[in-house]
Amino acid sequence: MVDSNTIQYSFGTEDEKAVFITLTPKGYARVDELQKNTAYGKAVLVAMKFGNDTILLREAIRKGIINAGYVAVFIDEVQYNDFIAPELLKHIRDSKFVVVDLTHQNNGAYFEEGYAMGLGNPVIQLCKQDTTLHFDIAQKNTIMWQVEDYIPDKLCNRIKATID
Questions:
Q1: Which CATH architecture has domain 42-162?
Q2: Alpha-carbon distance 41 to 30, whole Å?
Q3: pTM score
Q4: For position 3, what pLDDT does the model report?
């Protein structure tokens, strides 16, 4: 039997002419990592308040994510057939990282950030200047913005510096 940390394999008898291959736990972890870097590997869930008053913010975040080479996923743009909560949690799990804007102190955005952090997924926080962040996350390095035009470059740079 040969063990390469990710797979174990052994050869059958000369009559069988077979190879028996088994993935180790590290092998399964590697498969998960590779899958994240293929179909959904470039997906980034964005948690924020959705509405007419946040259209400029949404597009600024989208532009920063795209400029960094990723695909922004906004749950209100996703087609699904069942309940939103399982769909949202699936997208957080499948995302390379999560971007959260906390300007509007949206409880959903706080929940989504907490879920991502609990999974060990990186989270990049954004917030408009002069907004008071909840004390649990106020010490986290946050991209503070005054106008939406400021976001794309700052977000792209943060992604490239901390994710890639």
A1: 3-Layer(aba) Sandwich (3.40)
A2: 13
A3: 0.77
A4: 57
